[in-house]
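Hi everyone, sorry if this is the wrong subforum. Our group has a chain we'd like a structural model of before ordering constructs, and none of us has done structure prediction before. Sequence below.
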Amino acid sequence: MQLDNYDKAILNTLQNNGRLSNQEIADKIGLSPSACLRRFKALEESGMITGYRCLLDAKNLGLDLMAIINIAMDRHTQERFAEFEETISKIPNILECLLITGQTADYQLKVLVKDLDAYQDLLLNHITRIPGVTGVLTSFVLRKVIDKTAIPLD
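Answer:
Right subforum, don't worry. Here is the predicted structure as tokens:
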């Protein structure tokens, strides 16, 4: 799907506030509500919009410790990676899992836990017990400098 300026404006508006009504979006970008709705539906149907989420404040929920964990695997096979990815996807404290290159690690995880004790439990009772995990290197996040979810469209 080729995006024009109105499509980009709809997407940018939704990324900033996904709770806006069609009428509010149309008013913000200068389209009639019916034209805006047609475009909005086309963006959903094309897969450009993949879902809607509510962003929560982790600290207010008692999740004060964020860590970035680099994981090294023993074998680089499709089967080993598939087993790791399936297992890791079932652990709720893992927010993100990236298969990476250019490092000594194969995966990078972003995790969020209550405290250091919860991190230790996650590491020792879950992550290091996954078959194939041979190395773990953790960095703790001191402060989020940039924290955004919007994808640049320009």
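For your construct planning: The beta strands are 65-73, 94-99, 107-113, 133-140. The chain has two domains: 5-45, 59-140.
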